[in-house]
């Protein structure tokens, strides 16, 4: 992504939060009556894939700790301009409450510096 991002250009990323993907296969821990007790976190620092299905859609998902993403973007010289863990703003109240307990997404805006440290073709004289 960085290779094709123009100098000064921005990269907007919305991704699952790493703490929810760490136990994405297991999901919520519920009591005997089906009430959501808590969402587990395990193997957070490991990187692994797992199959996930909802609404008849099956995908191969990858868990990586947040540091893996942050490190990769920083190592490629990008600057973080915005970071958010948005909560729900609409929908069923019960679902809103659950998604406020465990937000599912992070939103990040990374920017490539307008001035590159790489030599230009004109400076090779």
Written overview of the protein:
- This protein is of the alpha+beta class and 125 residues long.
- The protein has one domain (10-111): Rossmann fold.
- 18% of the residues lie in helices and 31% in strands.
- The chain has three helices and seven strands.
- The protein has helices at 18-21, 66-75, 93-101; strands at 10-16, 29-30, 36-38, 48-54, 57-63, 79-84, 105-111.
- The protein has a three-stranded antiparallel beta sheet.
- Strand 2 and strand 3 form a beta hairpin.
- The two termini are 30 Å apart.
Give a quick summary of the entry.
With 125 residues, the chain is α+β, with helices and mostly antiparallel strands. It has three helices and seven strands, in the order βαββββαβαβ.
Average pLDDT figure: 87
Are there runs of 5+ residues with pLDDT below 50, and where? none
Relative strand content: 25-35%
Helix segment count? 3
**Order of strands across the main sheet:** 1-7-6
């Amino acid at each position: 992504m960085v290779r094709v991002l123009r100098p000064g250009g921005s990269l907007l990323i919305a991704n699952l939060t790493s703490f929810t993907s760490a136990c994405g296969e297991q999901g919520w821990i519920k009591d005997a009556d089906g009430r959501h007790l808590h969402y587990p976190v395990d193997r957070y620092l490991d990187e692994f894939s797992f199959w996930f299905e909802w609404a008849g859609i099956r995908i191969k998902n990858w868990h990586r700790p947040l540091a893996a993403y942050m490190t990769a973007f920083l190592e490629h010289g990008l600057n973080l301009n915005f970071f958010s863990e948005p909560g729900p703003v609409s929908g069923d109240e019960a679902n809103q409450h659950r998604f406020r307990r465990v937000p599912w997404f992070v939103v990040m805006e990374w920017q490539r510096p307008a001035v590159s440290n790489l030599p230009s073709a004109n400076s090779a004289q």
